[in-house]
Design brief:
Layout lengths: L7 H48 L17 H8 L1 H32 L4 H15 L2 H11 L6 H9 L13 H25 L4 H9 L4 H12 L1 H16 L5 H4 L11 H10 L4 H31 L1
Helix pairs in contact: 1-13, 3-7, 3-10, 3-12, 4-7, 7-10, 8-9, 10-13, 12-13
GO biological process, one term: transmembrane transport
Keywords: Cell membrane, Membrane, Transmembrane, Transmembrane helix, Transport
Family: Belongs to the binding-protein-dependent transport system permease family.
């Protein structure tokens, strides 16, 4: 017998029991599942962050307990170091290249292949493969491409009969090569975000615009792009946060060289903190990076994400 055949008072009592049982079930599940998650989060996130903030005020090599308290000296050295300035500027350039080149390229390709056809599925796979490839593998592949002795650039120089050139050894060209690799590596991720959003645009609105005589660029500008603004906002957020964390591609590609010209903030932390056993100094760099990332995330979500979802 269903609860619709019960008298009103018994039906209400039955509904209350069901609601209480569901609430108790969620509470029980929370009590069972939440403590392990909190323990893991505390051990592997909260405690390392706290220790990093503590070590930033010590001159410590990672062995034994930190004892040489130096106050803000690590931060003073960091902000006064010319290589750190280069690393910050390179990180800013990666953010700009991601927003101004990588994202528009991803959107253009998404507009071309977002419809569900077998041919488009093949192209999506081709364009998405660089993203699923390991960063270290991508860096090694492109280091071979740019190799002036045996790589693709060497073959091109030989074919054209010109002197061989070494892109990754050139102080002016090396970081441009790094940015090419970053665009190639991550545009597929943003493309898939846009494809998913474009597939949710109502077809009747596109057909109505076509009936009204709208051109393809006008449909993109006035129909499709306004519908996918939330996806663009999310994509830009990932691009900015990802640019702040670029590391794995650069290490096998240039290792920060030549002459420290291709360092980002994270590779700078690795090179001048970890590899030189200056754990306190590296912790100071990590603290600055963490604060910047948190500020970017908070302000971006409060300003742009709300606008994008409005």
């Amino acid at each position: 017998m269903s609860d619709t055949t019960l008298p009103p008072d018994r039906r209400q009592a039955f509904s209350d029991r069901v609601r209480r049982a569901a609430t108790n079930g969620r509470l029980t599940a929370g009590l069972i599942l939440l403590p392990p998650a909190l323990i893991l989060f505390t051990l592997f996130v909260i405690l390392p962050l706290g220790e990093s903030g503590l070590y930033a005020f010590y001159d410590w090599n990672g062995y034994g307990a930190p004892q040489d308290f130096v106050g803000l000296r690590n931060f003073e050295q960091m902000f006064g170091h010319s290589v750190f300035s280069i690393a910050v500027w390179n990180t800013v350039k990666i953010i700009l290249i991601s927003l101004l080149i990588q994202m528009p390229l991803a959107l253009l390709l998404a507009l071309l292949i977002y419809r569900k056809t077998p041919t488009n599925a093949v192209f999506r796979l081709i364009f998405f493969v660089p993203y699923i490839m390991a960063e270290v593998a991508a860096g090694l592949i492109w280091s071979f491409v740019f190799d002036g002795n045996y790589g693709v650039t060497a073959s091109i120089a030989t074919t054209l009969g010109i002197e061989r050139f070494f892109v990754l050894a050139d102080r002016e060209l090396a970081f441009y090569a790094v940015m090419v690799v970053i665009v190639w590596k991550y545009f597929g991720f943003h493309m898939m975000i846009y494809i998913a959003a474009l597939q949710g645009v109502p077809d009747d609105q596109i057909e109505a615009a076509q009936i009204e005589g709208a051109s393809r660029p006008q449909i993109v500008r006035h129909v499709q792009v306004p519908h996918i603004k939330p996806a663009i906002a999310v994509s830009a957020f990932f691009a900015i946060i990802g640019a702040l964390q670029v590391f794995d591609v650069i290490i096998p590609l240039t290792n920060g060289g030549p002459s420290n010209q291709t360092h980002t903030i994270v590779t700078y932390l690795y090179e001048f903190g970890l590899t030189r056993l200056r754990i306190g100094y590296g912790s100071a760099v990590g603290v600055v990076l963490f604060i910047v990332a948190v500020l970017v995330a908070v302000f971006y979500q409060r300003i742009f994400m709300k606008k994008g979802t409005a």
